[in-house]
User: What shape does this take?
Amino acid sequence: MRKVNRVVLVGTGAVGCSYAYSLINQGVAEELVLIDVNELKAEGEAMDLNHGVPLAPSPIKVWKGSYEDCNGADLVVLTAGLAQKPGETRLQLVEKNTNIFKQIVGSIMENGFDGIFLVATNPVDIITQVTWKESGLPKERVVGSGTVLDTARLQYEIANYLNVDARNVNAYIMGEHGDTEFPVWSHATIGIKKLDAYFEGNPELQKEVYEQIHANVRDAAYHIIQRKGATYYAIGMSLVRITKAILHNENCILPVSTLLEGEYGHHDVFIGVPAVVNRDGIREVIEIELSERERAQFDHSVSVLKEIMDSSVKVLVRS
Assistant: This one.
């Protein structure tokens, strides 16, 4: 039989279902398994999605499954866990979601999973590291959504300000997916033109615009949660973008959360950095030259994540 791409989604909340809906509409995989502690909800979501399969760009089988379906799966996408509440930071979710993930990852690995993990649950950098520790898989095969969503938000904000197509904006957010993330302004371009060139001779305007865009991107989730209770459409699409890069062996560069082993001068921390993503997961981390300010911002972001790991997580995961 021809090998098909099987994706297992754990967690059929708003983020998981947005991912599943986008995955089917973009024709990325041939099989999609839905797992949730609420089995009736998972079954209902599978039924609803299946009714759209005749309208999808390519065939796909969707069903409510169990952890046994992880055996032979190419990719397990983890969106389960407690969501961020109004006024709550992503890092405040650490202990609650760490304990949930210990159980989930353990159940997946007990059923012979040998593929790639894609993690979206917040705080995503720390939960990705927990997944890696608990799974025992090579670091290359445990990928966090990182700052892919934040980068898309940055591209949108820049495009909106300059009135250009967001797909022509080449700019990245790096660091924690959270309050310490930062834009890499020194490498931002519109097409092949440096973004800085649009503000030549007007440094005050440049500073004002950059600060406002950074704030809009950093605080986007808070504003959305305040208005509608949760964010899910854009993160669902971000996860599909990473899924395509993996299943289609694209070797594309995305700012995902991955383990640093000396890159940017840091070790033993999962954090959002540009990396080459393909069928094996993370092929390599791309190191770029950061400005002095950006380097300080990155170091600060690392220190915040490590402090949380040391104080709240290490005692909960396997050494």
About this structure: The longest helix spans residues 292-313. Residues 177 and 203 are 28 Å apart (CA to CA). The mean pLDDT is 94.
